[in-house]
Amino acid sequence: MTVVSPISYGAVGDGVANDSAAFNSAIAALPSGGGVVDMQGRPYGLLNSVNIDKPVRFINGGKFIALSATGDLLKVGSGVEGFSCSEVTFDVSSAIARTSGAAINIAGDPNLLGAVIGPVITNNIFRNQFLAINVDYAQHPVISGNTIFNTVRTGSGIVIGNQYYVHGATLSGNHLQVSDDKDKAAVGIRIGWCDVYFIGFNSSVRHEIGVSIKPVGSSQYAGTGKLIGNNLDTSTIAVLVEPENGGRVYTLLVDGNWLSASTAAAAKIRSNSGIVRGISITNNEAKYGSGNGIVCEGPASGTAFDGLFIRGNVAASNPSGRGIDLSGVITHVSSSNNYCGVELNPAGIADANHTGYHVNVGVSGKSCCDDVAGNSVAQFQNLSSTFAVAA
Predict the structure, then answer these.
(1) Under 8 Å between Cβ of 135 and 169
(2) Are the CB atoms for 170 and 204 separated by under 8 Å?
């Protein structure tokens, strides 16, 4: 396999000089079948994007330092099969703050050469980026073991399918964190247009939203997804499912996660102006501050929220919120065997209209599952009125 070094093509490798052209020249020198770029453990300043149009693997550590507030650092183009980046640090010059662009942009475009196949991004470190990793029009991307620190206030850690379709994404073992002294970054992980995705054993600390499932527009959907074993300790919402403008979310399993939020909700499912079908929320620890535990809001006119299964969750700690809040037009609901520890039965929710069966446990005399407008009383059983359960 061909190995090239950017130093051989004029790179300075001090983290201050602009080495973008040297990297592009080194990659251009590789055969069409690709090869290896030897970083030699050095820091390289990038004022412009490094464009990758063939299979490239980066080795021997090293660091990329953004010298510009905008633009991508590594940009992988359509049709590339086998891009790999591992054990590289992506940082930003102390003189700038990033306002756009990704550290690694898997930039497939259906109007060009086709999808990026099998990109692997593992065990890298990202600091102070606007967007650490973006993936569009790709098949089977693997993003694992990365550490993403202090994404800027308006940015995100990992985004999948923002503009174009992605199939078979795996996100596992990544750690995303915002320091106490930083403004809270908007989103840790966001899924847009993606079919078949796994988000497992990741941690998101101090973001406003830990994981957002948000396809936008009638052509976009997020289907057959699993969120399993994640630790999401956030300021506003740990998991937000919210399609917009005709977007669709279906067949989503949220299981075995630690979901913590200081304000709005540990988990919030809202059909908004999109379609939500087949959501299972099971076996999670939902800890919340001034808001609610698991919130499922019904749709706006002309949209749908069908098939909701909530079972085996523990939702506790807020003295003024609800453990489970069903506050819209939802059909085919099953909510059972959940424990909601401290709810004080606040005011009812207008226009609740559910079909389903509810058997949950809460503190004696208090409401653990709100469905209080009277439309489904015959189908609702709250065991807290029968059994005194310790908080």
Answers:
(1) yes
(2) no
Which tokens belong to 387? 């059994």
Instruction: Please give the structure tokens belonging to residue 68.
Output: 């510009």
> In the numeric block, which tokens belong to residue 108?
């497939």
Compute the distance between CA of residue 259 and CA of residue 20 in angstroms, rounded to an integer: 41
Reading the block at residue 101, the tokens are 């662009």
Phi and psi of 302, rounded to 5°? 90, 0
Question: What is each CA distance from 273 to 214, 303, 331, 332, in whole angstroms?
Answer: 11, 6, 17, 19
Of 123-127, 128-132, 372-376, give the lowest mean pLDDT range: 372-376
At residue 329, φ and ψ (nearest 5 deg) are: -85, 100
Q: Are 253 and 228 in contact (CB under 8 A)?
A: yes
Domains and CATH numbers, the chain: 3-207 (2.160.20)
Triad 347, 351, 354: Cα angle to 5°: 105
Rounded distance, CA 256 to CA 267, Å? 13
Q: Tokens for 7?
A: 């130093």
Concatenate the DSSP letters of all residues of 322-365 into one string. Answer: -SEEE-SEEEEEEEEEEEE-S----S--TT-EEEEEEEEEESTT
**Residue 127 and residue 148: Cα distance in Å, rounded?**
6
Alpha-carbon dihedral 289, 294, 296, 297, rounded to 10 degrees: -10
- pLDDT score recorded for residue 330: 67
Do 3 and 57 meet the contact criterion of CB atoms below 8 Å apart? no
Annotate 228-260 with DSSP letters as a single string: ES-EEEESSEEEEE--BTT-EEEEEEEES-EEE
State the Cα–Cα distance between residues 353 and 370, nearest whole angstrom. Answer: 12
Task: For residue range 310-356, list pLDDT tens digits in order.
Answer: 888 888 766 566 777 776 656 767 777 777 754 433 333 333 444 45
Q: What three-state secondary structure class fits 3?
A: strand
Helices (H), 181-300: none
Q: CA torsion 33→39→44→47, rounded to 10°? A: 10
